[in-house]
Amino acid sequence: EVQLVESGRGLVQPGGSLTLSCSASGFTFRNYNMHWVRQAPGKGLEYVSGVSSHGRYTYYTDSLRGRFTISRDNSENTMFLQMSSLRTEDTAVYYCVKEDSGFDVWGQGTMVTVSS
Amino acid sequence: QAGLTQPPSVSKGLRQTATLTCTGNSNNVGHQGAAWLQQHQGHPPKLLSDRNNNRPSGISERFSASRSGNTDSLTITGLQPEDEADYYCSAWDRSLSAWVFGGGTKLTVL
């Protein structure tokens, strides 16, 4: 079964840092681009970041570039999102997503709350 | 970051046909097309149609996508109560080197 499982949920103070992980199984992880997409409470989907299959290229939505860093470890079938200088507006469910001509597999999401 | 444009809401009757639109530009929808996602409250999104207008395995034939220029459309025939959900389009934007989403359309089945 193709599966993506996010971890790293938490409550963080403004200005703090947090790292999310996504563990993949059921498919050849190293063959696919992977992404993070977030959804603030009651809002729509927002693209966060992506990484190419081999990890050579990374992609970010402009407003997050510089604060978030994406990476992957193909030997461990895992993707990461390092988040720093967190703001209250970063509060959202963060989804790990597999790309295959579209976002075809989604994790259940992990909640990140930025609050004092 | 510029996104894709979707109508906020569409309402149709049971067993009717709904057509949802997604408008972008030549750098995103017009370049490689849009993919469509369905999201029910409290659940992760589900892919309905990829950028090539192909349905993943298990997706009903009642869902079909098409493209004309910079606008992609998702047509849902024979509307059922379970089709009531939020629908999002997404596309790769070559000028931004990032994916972009539409704001989503809330479909109500009357």
Describe the structure.
The complex is a heterodimer of chains A (116) and B (110). Chain A is an all-beta fold and 116 residues long. Helices cover 0% and strands 53% of the residues of chain A. In chain A, the strands form two sheets. In chain A, strands 2, 4, 5, 6, 9, 10 and 11 form a seven-stranded mixed sheet that branches. In chain A, β9 (92-99) and β10 (103-106) form a beta hairpin. Chain A starts with a strand and ends with a strand. Chain B is mainly beta. In chain B, 4% of the residues lie in helices and 45% in strands. Chain B has one helix at 29-32; strands at 9-12, 18-23, 35-39, 46-49, 63-68, 71-76, 85-93, 98-101, 105-109. In chain B, strands 1, 3, 4, 7, 8 and 9 form a six-stranded mixed sheet that branches. In chain B, β7 (85-93) and β8 form a beta hairpin. The longest helix of chain B has 4 residues, at 29-32. The model of chain B has no long low-confidence stretch (mean pLDDT 96). Chain A binds chain B through residues 35, 37, 44-47, 50, 59-63, 95, 100-104, 106-109, and chain B through 1, 35-37, 39, 44-47, 49-52, 54, 56, 86, 88, 90, 96-104.
How would you describe this structure in keywords?
heterodimer; A: 116 residues; mainly beta; seven-stranded mixed beta sheet; 11 strands; globular; B: three-stranded antiparallel beta sheet
Short précis:
The complex is a heterodimer of chains A (116) and B (110). Chain A is an all-beta fold and 116 residues long.
Gyration radius over CA of chain A = 13 Å
- Return the structural class of chain B: mainly beta
Overall spatial form of chain B: globular
Q: What is the global morphology of chain A?
A: globular
- Quaternary status: heterodimer
Uncertain residue segments of chain B: none
What sequence of helices (H) and strands (E) makes up the elements of chain B? EEHEEEEEEE
β-strand percent of chain A reads over 45%
Distance between the termini of chain A: 39 Å
Number of strands of chain B: 9
Helix fraction of chain B?
under 10%
Distance between the termini of chain B: 35 Å
Low-confidence blocks of residues of chain A: none
Number of helices of chain A: 0
Counted beta strands of chain A: 11
The portion of residues forming beta strands of chain B comes to: 35-45%
Computed structural class of chain A: mainly beta
